[in-house]
Design a protein that fits this description.
The protein is an alpha+beta fold and 188 residues long. Helix content is 31%, strand content 33%.
Length: 188
Amino acid sequence: MALGFVRPARQSDAAEIARVQLATWRTAYRRLLPRHILEEIDEDFLRERWLEAIVAPPSERHRVLVAIEQAAQEYLVGFLASEPAEEDHGVAAITELLVEPRWGRRGHGSRLLAASVDLWRADGFTAAGAWAFDQDIATQKFLTSAGWAPDGSTRALDVDDLLVPQNHLHVSLEQIPETDGETGTLDD
């Protein structure tokens, strides 16, 4: 298990979050989304959106957490963003959960998820949900190994006239054991 921790994102993290997002999308989604779409994503645009999410979130229940790998120095290696679900404010919605592929399988995703669950509970959420690309088996496997399950809801994103199907997964926060500060128990 890697040495690492999770903390709230800071203003100075915005550029690195954008870099991790773009690098991960270009690796993980290269067979799901059109190549030119992935190549045209502007990292500066992403950085500005993450900066806004960090310094001026719409509510206290909108959160961006980052995973830090500790080695000779610290590296921001992943992040989880969440907000109240549009349709039910008792449900937390993951809007993005990414760990840069080269840092995968070191517990960072599990630490991000466990820290988020603790915060969601403190915020009064009773359940959580996330959309995952139908062909993104890694994300679906990760979430189901953590107790999440598909709820049968589907949607398709229109990406440059290509419909990309997604499945919705959910979990009751009352069914996930308390972590008591122990995070990273799942092997991701």
